[in-house]
Design a protein that fits this description.
The protein has 163 residues and is α+β, with helices and mostly antiparallel strands. The chain contains six helices and six strands, in the order H-H-E-H-H-E-E-E-H-E-H-E. Helix 2 (24-44) crosses helix 3, helix 2 crosses helix 4 (93-106) and helix 3 crosses helix 4 (93-106).
């Protein structure tokens, strides 16, 4: 048997072993995440961004979530990551961040969408992620240090579907 088939079979066995250990509640989150990823990927193909509607200083302050919200958000982020890796379509960081934010919102967990950019010797890189209590969910802890975060006014732009 070729080595790539052996590696693929081992990977499939590992995924099935993990899947058998998940409780029903996690399977429901995985299914919701899968559909949210698909929905946001399709929507992002049809939207355009208009000028910002409000200055950054007029945005409402968000109260911090209860302590258990961060651990619930991290678990939801891991489940969304599983759904994204197993999806039939490739998922960008923006699609994953939007879907995660939606899942957290539906569970009553306040979060913030962050979009940042980095210009280095290797070129221009942009990234999107979600933060809860100022901590990145499903990302390395230093993600906000590696990328210059765009101002909230830019992220609060109106979104319009094309005519």
């Amino acid at each position: 048997m070729p080595s790539w088939k052996t590696a693929s079979l081992k990977s499939l066995k590992r995924k099935l072993r993990i899947a058998r250990q998940l409780p029903l509640a996690d399977w429901l989150v995985l299914a919701e995440a899968w559909w949210a990823l698909l929905g946001f990927r399709l929507v992002l193909r049809w939207i355009r961004i208009e000028a910002p509607s409000a200055p950054a200083d007029s945005l409402p302050d968000e109260a911090g979530p209860p302590p258990d919200h961060l651990s619930r958000a991290q678990r939801t982020g891991r489940l969304l990551g599983l759904a994204a890796r197993g999806h039939i379509l490739p998922m960008t960081c923006l699609v994953r961040a939007l879907a995660l934010r939606r899942l957290l919102e539906r569970r009553g967990i306040s979060s913030r969408l962050r979009i940042g950019a980095d210009w280095s010797a290797s070129g221009f890189h942009a990234h999107a992620w979600v933060e809860v209590e100022g901590r990145a969910v499903g990302e390395p802890a230093d993600v906000s240090d590696r990328f210059a975060v765009f101002e909230p006014a830019i992220l609060n732009s109106r979104v319009a579907l094309p005519r």
